[in-house]
Design the sequence.
DNA sequence: GTTAGCACTCTAGCGCGTCGACTGCTAATA
DNA sequence: TATTAGCAGTCGACGCGCTAGAGTGCTAAC
């Protein structure tokens, strides 16, 4: 029996405390646990157990003569071992299916935005969606287009269906046929590479003495990293600031949340976790960022071809983990299905 | 003398009240106005004047025996007639210049994001940036690219330097030379039109009996409105949620701000005002949206070719209008310069 | 027209006592 | 030995009254 293992009774009481606290947002007393019904114990016994849970850091007491509230460790124990399989209610499931089903054929940005919105509505939490990072996407086609006045358009299409484009200056001397030939060459070089690999390869080619179309490719490569810069590469969508601001735990200092909401990069950073197929829950202090105490994340991932995107919710540690994990998981799965379906493939 | 005209003395006192209140965030007493120094009056006289200002709805009293706070009308009078020309301090001006100068050659999305960030930092307010609406942009070039498996890429370059692209399905029967010919045709048709006009024209052409490449153009046109849908058409960037959440006036119900922060469309809607060359100030209830009481906007515009984008700040009505109008104006002008400069034109 | 003076009003803050919720301990109990 | 009833003790929430102080509105004098 590991040090942190709890007896059945302790587990039951911890569950009761957490579930009651999530509902009420107020410290849970021994009496309240008894009134939960599932245990046939007196409040005195429950108190003894609570004291032991407190000694182990699973719950804490705001002050003497108050009830207990779950500590981050307590939530962690609950999520890992007590809450049981994340079950999605029929109503939730139906809503998710219906919402996803109307998105067939839309582009990724729209899908991610809409899914964030739905996730936020359904969970009543701040929801975040990350498009798949373009950097890791695999190139399907690159095209240069010759314009007037020595300018050129570069367009990159990825297997995921995402496309990016930008203008660059190539000098008056470049002819239309040069551009066409360079396009052919680039496609030979870059097909099947990721954006990052492509950039590396271009750099190498440019160093070679006999690099063909050096000036043209040089100019284009100068744009490359900017086109695929994070800002445009891994777009962040979020919805539902109103929900997180509504929580009583943030009533005092909403400025903390300001920091979270503020920067798309910070948000992306939070949600971009070491990849895992499963939904990942991060509770309070487990976020190493400062000032993220009191905030939990539930993050899932979805695949689009070779690339991975993420969706998740952000809320107070006092959140309905079981339901949220279920909903996020369901969304992730359906997005996976959507992006691998023939409907999506063909609709593009 | 118009009904709402004030005497010099009344104006001085109104100014003193507003400026003191903006600094202190607390009701301003008659004594505080006297202590401001610029008037040689007793507090009793000031009290008489304040009562008359209150009768006209320019200031209000939270409760008897409290000082006065400016009403929306008072701010309006101040902004229109009292605060004087918006003057930008040398330090602000230098920072703005420096910030803008490093943006030469970047793409519009990056520029707008960075400017929002700078504006937010400088003003310590929530800042919003809108890219120019792509819809009203003028087409410079449209290009179709033939891909494998009956798919096609459409790329549109605008005179503003913005580009958009998307994949669509065109059917296996379309040949590479068809695509090239169709590209030429499209450029003939669409050159110099706005995106909106182009969509109309394509619709007309498709109705004609002898429309060439009907299937191809039909498929492409099916994508058209989605590519240029608001979501991608008039991107919104914002920065500085932390600042607006920090204001004491929103300490209680931040959920109101949640509604503002929440939806990019709502933000865009706020900032997208009837066009004007000048910086536009919108105070509290002048926003017709409900629940926008207590919130003011300072919005400027900048041109990129034929299209117009906007930048602005959003904060409590208790804001430093003079300085903010100056800073927003300065940014607008420098953006205008940036986008019309040969440096920008050529750098693209 | 302006001001000094004064009575009045209202808030913020403090101290106090009470109530009620909850705990921790102890001794009785099954 | 595990559980429980009972009880004393602790602490926050609430309401009350009081006071200090800030600020007003009015009036009479200048």
Sequence:
């Amino acid at each position: 029996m590991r040090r942190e293992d709890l007896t059945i009774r302790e587990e039951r009481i911890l569950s009761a405390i957490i579930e009651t606290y999530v509902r009420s947002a107020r410290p849970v007393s021994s009496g309240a646990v008894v009134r939960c019904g599932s245990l046939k114990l007196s409040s005195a016994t429950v108190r003894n157990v609570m004291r032991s849970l407190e000694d182990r850091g699973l719950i804490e007491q705001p002050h003497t003569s108050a009830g207990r509230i779950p500590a981050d460790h307590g939530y962690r124990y609950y999520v890992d071992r007590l809450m049981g399989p994340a079950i999605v209610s029929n109503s939730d499931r139906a809503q998710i299916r219906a919402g996803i089903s109307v998105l067939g054929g839309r582009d990724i940005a729209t899908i991610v935005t809409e899914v964030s919105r739905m996730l936020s509505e359904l969970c009543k939490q701040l929801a975040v969606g990350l498009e798949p990072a373009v950097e890791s996407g695999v190139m399907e086609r690159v095209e240069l287009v010759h314009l007037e006045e020595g300018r050129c358009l570069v367009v990159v299409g990825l297997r995921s269906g995402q496309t990016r484009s930008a203008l660059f200056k190539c000098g008056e001397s470049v002819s239309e046929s040069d551009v066409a030939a360079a396009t052919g060459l680039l496609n030979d070089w870059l097909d099947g590479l990721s954006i990052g690999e492509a950039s590396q390869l271009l750099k190498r080619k440019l160093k070679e003495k006999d690099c063909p179309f050096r000036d043209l490719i040089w100019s284009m490569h100068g744009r490359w990293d900017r086109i695929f810069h994070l800002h445009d590469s891994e777009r962040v969508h979020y919805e539902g600031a109103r929900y997180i601001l509504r929580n009583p735990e943030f009533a005092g200092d909403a400025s903390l949340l300001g920091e979270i909401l503020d920067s798309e990069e910070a948000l992306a950073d939070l949600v971009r976790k070491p990849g895992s197929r499963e939904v990942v829950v991060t509770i309070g202090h487990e976020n190493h960022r400062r000032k993220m105490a009191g905030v939990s994340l539930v993050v899932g991932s979805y695949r689009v071809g070779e690339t991975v995107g993420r969706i998740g919710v952000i809320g107070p540690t006092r959140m309905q983990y079981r339901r949220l994990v279920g909903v996020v998981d369901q969304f992730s799965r359906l997005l996976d299905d959507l992006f691998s379906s023939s409907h999506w493939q063909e609709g593009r």
About this structure: The first strand of chain A starts at residue 59 and ends at 60. Residues 8-82 of chain A form a domain with the Arc Repressor Mutant, subunit A fold (CATH 1.10.10.10). The first helix of chain A runs from residue 8 to 24. Chain A touches chain B through 49 residues (CB under 8 Å).
